[in-house]
Amino acid sequence: MNPKLPYVLLVGAAVIIFILSCMLLSRGRRSPSCESQPRIVEKTGSTSQSLVFADLTPEEMVQVVRYLQGNLGVQLVDASRAKPSDNCIASVDVQVPAKAEVLQFLDGGGARPPREALAVLYFGNQPDPNITEYVVGPLPMPAYHRDVTVQKYGGKVPYHRRPMLGSEYEQVGAFLETVAFAAAPTFLKEVFEYDGTNVVFQTTAPHGFQSGDRKSWFIVFQNVSGFFVHPVGLEVLVDHSSLDMSRWVVSRVFYNGQYYRDMVQLESAYVQGRISVEKVRKAPWDGDFSSMKPRAPSAALFPLQYEPQGPRYSVRNNHVLFQAWSFAFGMSVNTGLRLFDIRHKGERVAYEISVQEALSVYGSNCPGGMSTRYMDGSFGIGRYTSPLVRGVDCPYSATYIDTHSLSETLSPSKRKDSLCIFEQNLGSPLRRHYSNLQSLYYGGLVNSALVVRSIVTVGNHDYVWDFIFYQNGAIEGKVQTTGYASSSFLHGDGLRYGNRVWEHTLGTIRTHSINYKVDLDVGGVKNSLVAHDMAFEMARAPWSPEQQIERPRLTKRVLDTEDQAAFRLQSKMPRYIYFAANSKNKWGHQRGYRIQITSFAGDHVPEASSMERAISWARYQLAVTRRKEEEPTSSSIYNQNDPWTPTVAFANFINNETITNEDLVAWITAGFLHIPHSEDIPNTVTVGNSVGFLLRPYNYYDLDPSIYSHDGVFFTSEQDFTACEINPIACLPKTASCLPNFPPFTYDGFQNM
């Protein structure tokens, strides 16, 4: 052995230790905690003005309830405990002032409109039960109320149209357990091992076949995690139309492909051995195949996004500023996320962008599935906004905002962290070019956009609602769907209506349709609708007349009437359709904002259907109408339970009025067909289930406004692109080498359930 070898090894080890120590020390020095820099915000108007659109505060809700309790002259029962024969407050929300009043305040120096609330009340304890809507004001100390029901709907709203309260669901559940099920003890015990706790019920809607009906199929599932995909084959039709709950009855029973008059007949047939029984394996409490518990242990952490110098946007009350963008946001208890007074570079481009309705139409060979047409606005899209989980539902470092609502109770409820706002690097360039011809250079801009998000869970469905603001002046409205697939018990010809996804589970076919209201104000309130497209024309080559050239040319058309601007769902629509201003850009073109829809919609319900008018907005991928205060929404919460005589029929909005140089609204429908498959177990993923629309500048500016972004990168072959002053990306090792200050993880989604 060479006597020098140990010394060589020792020296080598010392050098390695020294290098590693330097690296660790250096890394320690390069990884300080990120510190927020002073936020620079362009002045684009007073943030206090946005409060004209603000949701009610909990204190305002309390004052409205107190006022109603003391000034209506009737007893109001807490809706969470109300019987159908009681009077109660169903909901209280902000009453957004008329647009003309708001614009006079925002733009004309007018007085701030009075702050008011809209209260929906159920009057079941009176000779003529009905639904009444009151405007209550002024807030914060109400002194008046006025009945606006007739003004809004042309008459009183019949009581049978009322959305079901949670208390009514509980009362029907108690009826099923104590009255209906008591008539079939042997069947339930031997077939389902029923013990009073191991099944749950899911309702269907609408409730019947004609106005006045309140007959609901209740589908029975195993009471386990993810019960939506654990049907047991039993469905019960309950007539709960009477305000006297003692008069509720079972109208029909369905089990494993057969119909029975009631539970008594089912029990009798079972005892006599005249029923084909299909026993379902009892699932464990976690649901087994429906459990969302990961099947793999945690491993390397997924990538995270952070802001090395703090957020580049600001949120003050309900007002957001981001680069050249500003807007106000709110959360309607019925329709969910909505935006107002959206401005780019200080100029309003839209007055309102809001969700209107979410419709799903199901198919099945079971009665509950085949009769289901859910209109989620009736259940409350905003009401079911759910608390968000940091790092999954939104980036960990996003800004999280609490929302409040008053629905089916006398006290406001707080949904903590139920709305998030964040800037997101989308990981691709918004625009770029690498020049290797003539001059040598690179120019590009990272596609970093601001996202406003809420996630709503209505029954089995989860909707991820996004509004996204890009640096080039574009706005995107997008919804992604996830959650559990609804299912039916697999029997007979069930595979005509979906795919088998488990032993007894049929994933049932359904369509999803989402409607938005987009009130664009492009260069002012008055706009026209213009369509551009293309057509090929044949032309002689001027330099060689014997030759022909097929060349595309631009086609232009002004759409003058509402009928011309109503595009049926599967019809061909001009590929460029835009709201045109009365002003022109530098190049002589009308300034405009283009509407571009992303949709994979299934077919619409046939118009011959007796309930189609209630969802007639879904006939159209796009319909542009004159804006009217008396046409604020495309649907109504009352349409779900009486679609045969709809309270609001969108088809009535389209009556061939002139839409040239008018205040216009675009009603946009995006949707998709969902045929559940085995990969929807345990539940549906968002990938491929995203639809929506884009609003894009079209000759609105003289050039792309994103060229003024501070995020731009440009360098030539002759410049030192490693120098920070030339290329800010080169500075990232210095400017972004910090550890983000992530707050501790908290979640309040299981509080006060």
Automatic annotation (TrEMBL):
Annotated Gene3D superfamilies: 3.10.450.40, Copper amine oxidase, catalytic domain
PROSITE patterns: COPPER_AMINE_OXID_2, PROKAR_LIPOPROTEIN
Cofactor note: Contains 1 topaquinone per subunit.
EC assignment: 1.4.3.-
Enzyme class: oxidoreductase
A Pfam family recorded for this sequence: Cu_amine_oxidN2
Domain Copper amine oxidase catalytic: 305-707
PTM notes: Topaquinone (TPQ) is generated by copper-dependent autoxidation of a specific tyrosyl residue.
GO biological process, one term: amine metabolic process
A Gene Ontology cellular-component term: plasma membrane
Alphabetical UniProt keywords: Copper, Membrane, Metal-binding, Oxidoreductase, TPQ, Transmembrane, Transmembrane helix
Membrane-spanning residues: 7-26
Domain Copper amine oxidase N2-terminal, residue spans: 74-144
Essential cofactor(s): Cu cation
Residues covered by the Copper amine oxidase N3-terminal domain: 162-257
InterPro entries: Cu_Am_Ox_Cu-bd, Cu_amine_oxidase, Cu_amine_oxidase_C, Cu_amine_oxidase_C_sf, Cu_amine_oxidase_N-reg, Cu_amine_oxidase_N2, Cu_amine_oxidase_N3
Presence of the UniProt keyword Glycoprotein in the record: no
GO MF term list: copper ion binding; primary methylamine oxidase activity; quinone binding
Family: Belongs to the copper/topaquinone oxidase family.
Name assigned to this protein: Amine oxidase
Taxonomic source organism: Fregetta grallaria (White-bellied storm-petrel)
Lineage: Eukaryota, Metazoa, Chordata, Craniata, Vertebrata
